[in-house]
Amino acid sequence: MTRTALITGSTSGIGLVIAREFARAGYQLIFNGLEPDGERIAAETVAPFGVRYRYFSTDLRNPAGIRKMVEDGLDTFGAVEVLINNAGIQYVSPVEDFPENKWNDLLSVHLSAAFHLSKALFPSMKKKQYGRIINISSAHGLIASPYKSAYVAAKHGLTGLTKTLAMEGGAFGITANAICPGYVLTPLVEKQIPEQMQVHGMSRPEVIEKIFLKEHAVKEFITPEAIAATALFLADSAAAPYISGAAIAVDAGWTAH
Ligand code: NAD
């Protein structure tokens, strides 16, 4: 049986690797992301595996756009069994200077979009008596760091939404789980390295060692492939029917402190 996965933020970073690994496993894909060459990225990602796909440049801050993407996706594929809420942005600032528009954007992309997508897909998942909702949260969905008020609040909220979806979906074959990664070297983190070099007056290797990997027990960046493997495991009907409402740390031991 061919299943379909809708993966947000799937034209960059972790989401792109998740999409590639789901395509390799035979899933049909709905790509979403704001990269200007998103259509080409999606086409090239699925090409080696020959699976059907659609790409949507929908801005996740727009609930009506989300509903349209889901409608079009369901029209094309008939069902969407797997929803991976992965899109994300970051903004770092002391709380007293935190711009309100950045707060609103982070909450919209990380948290409200996951709500709107789950809401739009729940009826068809219920009808099929099958669904897998996988929210890419963060170690920051479990613990805080200073200057990341919006990100930490949104990711903690996403962990709470995950638990509620697990409660509501359980009787209908729908599971919901959060994956909580530590630092993965993607464009989102690359962008923060020069900022941190400037703030701390450190070289790139120093910032990587003393800031980013400081709390990792395993002193490496986590690979996006490791996140994709966890997502594939959670999506699997046979492997993970009884894992629901969990926040699974894939954080190199960060939150074990
Ligand atoms: P990334 O910057 O490489 O990719 C983010 C994706 O989200 C892009 O495709 C982008 O277009 C999309 N996106 C951003 N705003 C959007 C919007 N308004 N509408 C639609 N799409 C939008 O980032 P990444 O590092 O791959 O992050 C993916 C997820 O993993 C995020 O939720 C992030 O919080 C989480 N995460 C990342 C790390 C890390 O260290 N990289 C650690 C923990 C959690």
Task: Give a description of the structure.
With 257 residues, the protein is of the alpha/beta class. It has one domain (4-182, 223-256): NAD(P)-binding Rossmann-like Domain (Rossmann fold, 3-Layer(aba) Sandwich), CATH 3.40.50. 47% of the residues lie in helices and 14% in strands. It has nine helices and seven strands. A seven-stranded parallel sheet has the order 3-2-1-4-5-6-7, sandwiched between helices. Nicotinamide-adenine-dinucleotide (NAD) binds next to helix 1 and helix 6.
> For the terminal residues, how far apart are their CA atoms?
42 Å
CATH architecture: 3-Layer(aba) Sandwich
Mean pLDDT, all residues = 97
Low-confidence stretches: none
* Largest sheet report: 7 strands, parallel
Based on CA atoms alone, the radius of gyration comes out at 18 Å
> What compounds sit in this structure?
nicotinamide-adenine-dinucleotide
Domains (count) = 1
Portion of residues within helices: 40-55%
Biggest sheet strand order reads: 3-2-1-4-5-6-7
CATH class category: Alpha Beta
**What is the tally of beta strands?**
7
Give the overall form.
Answer: globular
Label the structural class. Answer: alpha/beta
Question: How large is the share of residues in beta strands?
Answer: 5-15%
